[in-house]
Amino acid sequence: MKDLSKIHQPITELFPQPKSSRDWEKYRLSQEQLDFFHENGYLSGIKLLDEHQIEVLRSELEKLQDPEHPLNHLFHEYHSNESDDPNTVLFHSLGHWRISPAFHDVIWNPAFVMAAYQLLGERGLRFWHDQLFCKPAKHGGVVAWHQDYSYWTRTIKMQHLTCWCGLDDADEENGCLHYIPKSHTWGLLEKPALAGDMDGLKAFMTEDQLKNFKPIAIPLKAGYATFHHPLMVHGSYANRSERSRRAFVLNAFADGTISNSDEELLKGVPVISKGEKMEGQFFPLLFSANLV
């Protein structure tokens, strides 16, 4: 068993790779979809996975959640419950692509890669890091309102993107994602505790922002994804339903992003000095036009 971050190509047949530029075309977003993203800060309902892929990822997720997994030390972060309250559970981890073949390969899923490439302006696409968010039935915790880039200022300039994909059907009953449309135009706000007070971010908002704080739910069938801007205000409420809500997140940035810190960017990743380009073993290039 080895660290899969050393392999910068798919290692299974789970996500067949396009062989030519023409093969990539079926994954392209429409201009209407791109315009919606840039106006509202998000784009939802993009199919990433078929039923077989969902089942394989669910199976590997179950193994990853075992704290006794022999490669648990490869996680950048591992929280059996990031909430302080044992009655509201939020499993959250980073770095599972290093451990699981299926989660390693989903980074090269053509449906994700092409959408992310387009949404970032058709520049070279690099992997930033992955996440797992799992809310068990009946006592699943919240993910507080936040902006992703408030946790990522250690990398500049801001040219990042988030993709959230469900492994269960997600709706308002079991804690689906919620957005504040057009909040990506509000600028960078302070960062709250991710599993803390749901409304902690509101303390840092202006009167005008509070007036326009109108959440919309993003229900998604398993295997479908939503993409959002790094300044999009988003969060998710508790799961009190009889169903689990499991999801993974892929975070990416445009090639040319640089380190803004002389400290460790992710646990277990060698320091990339401030001003140096984000690349190498942990930040592979996923796509650029000259690769096809």
From TrEMBL:
Cofactor section: Fe(2+)
What protein is this chain from? Phytanoyl-CoA dioxygenase PhyH
| Annotated Pfam families | PhyH
- The species is Mongoliibacter ruber
> Entry's SUPFAM superfamilies?
Clavaminate synthase-like
Kindly state which keywords UniProt assigns to this record, in alphabetical order: Dioxygenase, Oxidoreductase
| Source species taxonomy | Bacteria, Pseudomonadati, Bacteroidota, Cytophagia, Cytophagales
Q: Which domain of life is it from?
A: Bacteria
Q: Which GO terms describe its molecular function?
A: 2-oxoglutarate-dependent dioxygenase activity; iron ion binding
Which InterPro entries does this one have? Phytyl_CoA_dOase-like
